[in-house]
UniProtKB/TrEMBL annotation, chain A:
This is Nuclear cap-binding protein subunit 2. It comes from the Eukaryota. It comes from Polypterus senegalus. GO terms for biological process: mRNA cis splicing, via spliceosome; mRNA transport; nuclear-transcribed mRNA catabolic process, nonsense-mediated decay; regulation of translation; regulatory ncRNA-mediated gene silencing. One of its GO terms (molecular function) is RNA cap binding. Signal peptide: none annotated. Component of the cap-binding complex (CBC), which binds co-transcriptionally to the 5' cap of pre-mRNAs and is involved in various processes such as pre-mRNA splicing, translation regulation, nonsense-mediated mRNA decay, RNA-mediated gene silencing (RNAi) by microRNAs (miRNAs) and mRNA export. The CBC complex is involved in mRNA export from the nucleus, leading to the recruitment of the mRNA export machinery to the 5' end of mRNA and to mRNA export in a 5' to 3' direction through the nuclear pore. It is found in: Nucleus. It holds the Pfam family RRM_1. The keyword Methyltransferase does not apply. CDD domains: RRM_NCBP2. Component of the nuclear cap-binding complex (CBC), a heterodimer composed of ncbp1/cbp80 and ncbp2/cbp20 that interacts with m7GpppG-capped RNA. GO terms for cellular component: nuclear cap binding complex; nucleus.
From TrEMBL, chain B:
GO terms for molecular function: mRNA binding; RNA cap binding. Residues 1-22, 662-685 are annotated as: Disordered. GO terms for biological process: 7-methylguanosine mRNA capping; mRNA export from nucleus; nuclear-transcribed mRNA catabolic process, nonsense-mediated decay; regulation of mRNA processing; regulation of translation; regulatory ncRNA-mediated gene silencing; RNA splicing. Pfam families: MIF4G, MIF4G_like, MIF4G_like_2. This is Nuclear cap binding protein subunit 1. It is found in: Cytoplasm; Nucleus. Residues 1-18 have a biased composition (Basic residues). Residues 674-685 have a biased composition (Acidic residues). GO terms for cellular component: cytoplasm; nuclear cap binding complex; nucleus.
Length: 164, 790
């Protein structure tokens, strides 16, 4: 008896994405292996004001949360818009990928992705200014993420000076 | 399956190429079969015709694969039943032998699904077989004979009711598809079957129904037991001379081809006998919230006893079952339901989704899936679905008075999460009627809990901003820490100077020994002046240390967890006794009573790090100090989380034990094939056997702790319920207060949520707790529970 048909059991929301951590210690294969069995999710596009408590409440809807590590600006040591959520079981984290990814937290659509596992140091932004890399280069104005991106901000300051 | 990427280059390249070609073809066949019936530029009929041709051509080389795929779609895609029966009909017309082999394979599959307790899938197989009668693949008399065999299960002595129920259900639920055809050929036999079913339904017991109903009120929609509802629907169908107009029947277009085909007889089918390991489906109640008066314009909703209603609901449930993991696909499939123009589809979809969300004991899928699915549906139908959803929400609010407490919990959790995705926009003023009611009544209580849950996903000021000023009494309090030793004004409190000392010690990173030393100075209010019991329970010591520690760590969950971890040794020492454990929970409550979420996560950590045990949490929840919060949602959140942890703990150790036993068995088997040396063997065996013995002990300890936890909970329920009932009787007042309804439904909830584990304790429960002397209201809950799997 055919137990499963591939065409019938699509579960694309739990697939690993294209992103690979460049700082990961190990090769691509090892990283992918960890991603495929991981119970840890990276959560992005958070507001700088989103609290650990809010993350707990939302992510508890797919299972018991083992630990949350809030992402911090490397220099200021303040929240910089991402975090890690670790579950006790893989199944619970899969449900988060299926049902919490792409929904709103603190009025923002958040994005979750598999993470190879939290290691000390990974809670810090890797952008030159201390926050996340994406906040270095973005051009839009996002009041929940410090306003303009760092380079756009510097550009505006420079433009401002030129006007006088 | 894994397609091997490790090519053997030394091997035979032509063989490898053929193997991977054949895998490609098999994939293609799978894809073609699974996709037929989906949106296409050609008509369904021409697609089926084309596919039948392709498959017929592939039969010589891929017959087994095709058989397997068709059996699988029959079992797993019941919402496309008639598409696939038509396909099989066309194949049978072209290749009689293939038709016969398919029927045989399906009967084998039926046996396997029943034996493996996959009863829902077994129903789909039966239904598929019955629709094959319409496609001239199976001869009507042989289908009737199978139904007669099913119905004979009713006569079995000692068969549990749930077993009889299933066989009756399998017959009745196939009749919408094949009733007409069978009645035309064998009306006498069908009438006999229906009479047998009718008399069975009249005499079967329905004690369990009340436990499974979402609303206790009969109006506006009675919550019918599923077999009663289906029976009414089939009776109406028969009255309508088996005319059924909703089901899409592609085979009608092929009638001229199909009626030329030779039919097969089903092999005689004896229902597998009942076994101890059989787990039949739980009975259920049909959830209804809409009727023809609710859809304002457009097509009318089929009546509750119409067979159309049954078929629509079945199909929508099946679509969710097939696609729940992929919410966009699921929403799209639901919204493209064939025949949607003749029914108020949005209303059916919303009703079916809430039917699942509120299903007792459990929804078929995780709660959060339904929230996200509804959001996707709103995205796809922004002009119509949100309004239906708002209408549904309003209706459910209006009927809160008779809604089961567990369902109110789920309604509240769903609604608050839903609102958080839509900037908490809601017409709160529409609900201002709840402001004039006692806060313990269901409506104001519901709004209060919703706002508290919403706050967890945002923050206090936001809640103040989103509701009208008149709703202020229902707002949650600001979740601030309450520190007893706040300032100079508390300096007269006993232990105050020690709190300062502890505060400083912690800030100066003193070690545990130093801190314990400081704590020695705390007087023990429970003792006289004699010091001979230095380590006895000292509530003040616990209070001084914990209040100060949690105050320092109040900033966030992480800070509090860090504090608990850092001072774990001290906390364990302080809570060595049962009284200590209870007191630490009391202190936790005192400082964080404004922040239930914090209490919840800290209790969780304390259990996981064994500072308190599960029984202590249960005793604390039922203690007089917590009586005023007893009906609040967070309390039950904590209790159920505690029970869950206990259950998972037992499962985990049981798994370790099973794995160790398996390992030992493997070793024995390897040795029996004689390829290892004796000394090494006995050493390895010895180690494993020791490990197994240790694990066995661990399992027994854990199971006994688990049983104790449930007994404590039941005992306490019985105590407080009895107290209430006696008090009311003495005073001559009605005992059915909001508190009572909440409490008795919480007891039901415990039974329902953990019925498999609790079933192990039946003897103890009957002999020790749920005895005949108990008030009949409380005993009734126990009896309803017993009726669930009888």
């Amino acid at each position: 008896m055919a137990a499963n048909l591939n065409a019938l059991h699509s579960d694309s929301y739990i697939d690993i994405s294209q992103y690979r951590d460049q700082h990961f210690k190990g090769n691509r294969y090892e990283q992918e292996k960890l991603l495929k069995q991981s119970c840890t999710l990276y959560v992005g596009n958070l507001s700088f004001y989103t609290t650990e408590e809010q993350v707990y409440e939302l992510f508890s809807k797919s299972g018991d949360v083992k630990r949350i590590v809030m992402g911090l600006d490397k220099i200021k040591k303040t929240a910089c818009g991402f975090c890690f959520v670790e579950y006790y079981t893989r199944g619970d984290s899969e449900n988060a990928m299926r049902f919490i990814n792409g929904t709103r937290l603190d009025d923002r659509i958040i994005r979750t992705d598999w993470d190879a596992g939290f290691k000390e140091g990974r809670q810090y932004g890797r952008g030159k200014s201390g926050g996340q890399v994406r906040d270095e280069y973005r051009q839009d104005y996002d009041p929940a993420r410090g306003g303009y991106g760092k380079l756009a901000h510097l550009q505006r300051v420079a433009d401002g000076r030129q006007k006088y | 399956y894994m397609r091997s990427k490790h090519a053997d280059h030394r091997g035979q390249p032509h063989k490898k190429r053929r193997a991977s070609e054949s895998i490609e073809i098999e994939d293609r066949l799978e894809s073609l079969i699974c996709r037929v019936g989906e949106k296409s530029t050609s008509s369904l009929e021409s697609n089926l015709e084309g596919l039948a041709g392709v498959l017929e051509a592939d039969l010589p080389n891929y017959k087994n694969k095709i058989l397997r795929i068709l059996c699988a779609v029959a079992r797993l895609l019941p919402e496309k039943l008639t598409v696939y029966t038509t396909l099989v009909g066309l194949l049978n017309a072209r290749n009689y032998n293939f038709g016969g082999e398919f029927v045989e394979a399906m009967v084998r599959q039926l046996k396997e699904t029943i034996k493996s307790n996959s009863f829902y899938e077994a129903v789909y197989v039966v239904r598929f077989l019955s629709d094959l009668v319409n496609c001239h693949v199976i001869a009507a008399p042989s289908m009737v004979a199978m139904f007669e065999n099913f119905v004979s299960v009713i006569q079995e002595e000692d068969a549990p009711q749930v077993r009889r129920d299933w066989y009756v259900y399998a017959v009745l639920s196939s009749l919408p598809w094949v009733g007409k055809e069978l009645y035309e050929k064998k009306d006498v036999e069908i009438d006999r079957i229906l009479n047998q079913i009718e008399s069975y339904l009249k005499r079967r017991q329905k004690t369990h129904v009340i436990m499974l109903q979402v609303w206790t009120a009969e109006k506006p929609h009675p919550q019918e037991e599923y077999l009663d509802c289906l029976w009414a629907q089939i009776q109406k169908l028969k009255k309508d001379r088996w005319q059924e107009r909703h089901i899409l029947r592609p085979y009608i277009a092929f009638d001229s081809v199909l009626c030329e085909a030779l039919q097969h007889n089903l092999p005689p089918f004896t229902p597998p006998p009942h076994s101890e390991t059989a787990v039949y489906p739980m009975p259920r109640v049909i959830f209804r919230m809409f009727d023809y008066t609710d859809a304002p314009e457009g097509p009318v909703m089929p009546g509750s006893h119409s067979v159309e209603r049954f078929v629509i609901e079945e199909n929508l449930h099946c679509i969710i079952k097939s696609h729940w993991k992929e919410r966009k696909t699921c929403a799209a499939q639901l919204l493209s339901y064939p025949g949607k123009n003749k029914i108020p589809l949005n209303y059916h979809i919303v009703e079916v989704i809430f039917a699942e969300l509120f299903m007792l004991p459990f929804p078929p899928h995780i709660d959060v899936m339904y929230t996200t699915l509804l959001i996707e549906l709103c995205k796809l139908q922004p002009g119509s679905l949100p309004q239906v959803l708002a209408q549904a929400t309003e209706m459910m609010y209006l009927r809160l008075d008779s809604m089961n407490t567990t369902c109110i919990d789920r309604f509240m959790s769903w609604f608050s999460h839903h609102l958080s995705n839509f900037q908490f926009r809601w017409s709160w003023d529409d609900w201002s009627d709840c402001l004039t009611q006692d806060l313990e009544k269901p409506k104001p209580k519901f709004v209060k809990e919703v706002l508290e849950k919403c706050m967890r996903l945002s923050y206090h000021q936001r809640m103040v901003d989103i509701v009208p000023a008149s709703f202020a009494p229902l707002l949650p309090v600001n979740p601030l820490f309450v520190y007893k030793y706040m300032d100079e004004s508390s300096s007269t409190l006993p232990g105050y100077p020690v709190t300062i000392a502890i505060h400083n010690a912690i800030k100066n990173r003193a070690n545990n020994e130093e801190i314990l030393n400081v704590l020695k100075d705390v007087p023990n209010p429970n003792q006289g002046d004699d010091d001979d019991e230095v380590d006895s329970f000292n509530p003040l010591k616990i209070e001084v240390f914990l209040q100060t520690l949690l105050h320092l760590a109040a900033k966030s969950f992480s800070h509090s967890f860090s504090a608990l971890a850092k001072f774990h040794e001290i906390l364990k020492a302080l809570t060595d006794s049962d009284e200590g454990k209870l007191h630490i929970l009391r202190v936790l409550y005192d400082v964080w009573k404004n922040h239930p979420q914090m209490i919840s996560v800290i209790v969780d950590k304390m259990i996981r790090t064994q500072i308190v045990d599960c029984a202590a949490v249960a005793n604390w929840i039922f203690s007089p100090e917590m009586a005023h919060d007893f009906t609040r949602f967070y309390v039950w959140e904590i209790l159920h989380s505690t029970i869950r942890k206990m259950n998972k703990h037992v499962q985990k150790i049981q798994k370790e034990l099973d794995e160790a036993k398996e390992k030992l068995e493997k070793q024995h088997r390897r040795r029996d094939s004689g390829d290892e040396d004796d000394d090494k063997n006995s050493d390895e065996d010895g180690l494993l056997e020791e490990q197994i013995e240790r694990l066995q002990e661990k399992v027994e300890t854990a199971q006994s702790e688990q049983k104790n936890l449930f007994l404590v909970i039941f005992q306490r329920f019985i105590m407080i319920l009895t107290e209430h009932l006696v008090r009311c009787e003495t005073a001559g007042v009605d005992s059915n207060t909001p508190w009572y309804k909440n409490c008795i439904e919480r007891l039901q909830q415990i039974f329902l949520m953990h019925y498999q584990i609790i079933q192990q304790y039946m003897l103890t429960l009957e002999n020790l707790l749920f005895t005949a002397e108990l008030d009949h209201h409380i005993l009734a809950v126990y009896q309803q529970f017993c009726a669930l799997q009888s």
